[in-house]
Design brief:
Elements: H1 8-11, H2 15-23, H3 26-40, E1 47-50, H4 59-64, E2 68-73, H5 76-85, E3 92-95, E4 107-112, H6 122-135, E5 136-147, H7 149-154, E6 159-163, E7 169-177, E8 182-190, E9 196-205, H8 209-218, E10 222-227, E11 241-247
Parallel strand pairs: 1-2, 1-4, 2-3, 4-5
Antiparallel strand pairs: 5-11, 6-7, 7-8, 8-9, 10-11
């Protein structure tokens, strides 16, 4: 399977965005946003950075709960969806590379959700963590939500199907490369009229907990906790999520 090196520059448009928007119900997004706020230990009015924010599925419920939210994403199309959904203009939307965060000591907390870490090579991923650390105030917390590498390997499914609210079916096809610890994924959408759409693949680096903790510490962030789900489930080899919380001293 061929995947171009800078796949993220072109991937997030069309069917890829449709899949994300339609695959996750709004009530699930609200529950996850509530859980993120609790894990970050933020109070009302705190300033939170969502990076990358995609179409704003978590930024918007957090803003509705009274937090001051800035959403950063590279995809212009994702941000178009986010702005259209943000009818009150409660969120500040910024189009930029997630490694290019211009703020210094501004945010009370930050988070990266939905398997949005591991897009780059290891140096690029470290650059993202460095940028987040610089943007946080001292004492600010950072939450990163990833699929667990151990769970992927123990429960490997090469093909997975999702049904969209419009009746479309989405086939998610995966291949895991052990030498690089990267998962390669492609999507095919089957429309209700029988037609199909394909998008180029992406590949994401899957980190072990030890690797991620080491990278966070390298960015000057202190590891605080890890969970296996947004409900606070203890992390283990059988939990699908690896949700890590760290603090800038």
């Amino acid at each position: 399977m061929y995947v171009q090196a800078n796949w993220w520059q072109e991937f997030f448009h069309g069917v890829a965005i449709d899949c994300w928007i339609q695959a996750i119900p709004a009530d699930q997004s609200r529950r996850e946003a509530d859980a993120i706020a609790r894990a970050l230990a933020v109070s009302g009015g705190s300033e939170i950075l969502d990076v990358p924010c995609g179409a704003g599925r978590l930024s918007l419920p957090l803003a509705a709960a009274g937090y001051r939210v800035t959403g950063v994403d590279l995809s212009a199309e994702s941000l178009e969806h986010a702005r259209a959904a943000d009818q009150s203009g409660a969120v500040r939307w910024e189009q930029r590379d997630m490694r290019d965060l211009p703020w210094r000591g501004r945010f009370d907390a930050a988070f990266s959700a939905g398997n949005s870490f591991g897009y780059f090579d290891d140096d690029g991923d470290r650059a993202f963590l460095d940028a987040v650390a610089a943007a946080l105030k001292p004492g600010g917390r950072f939450l990163i939500d990833l699929i667990s590498r151990e769970w992927v390997l123990r429960n490997y499914q090469q093909n997975d199907w999702h049904e969209g609210s419009d009746g479309s079916l989405y086939l998610e096809h995966r291949e895991f490369e052990f030498t690089t610890s990267r998962e390669h994924v492609t999507f095919i959408a089957f429309n209700p009229d029988g037609s199909r759409r394909e998008v180029p693949g992406h590949h994401i680096r899957l980190y072990t907990l030890r690797e991620l903790v080491g990278m966070l510490e390298g960015a000057g962030l202190r590891f605080d906790a890890v969970y296996g789900g947004f409900d606070g489930t203890p992390y283990g080899v059988d939990t699908r999520r690896m949700i890590v919380v760290a603090t800038k001293p």
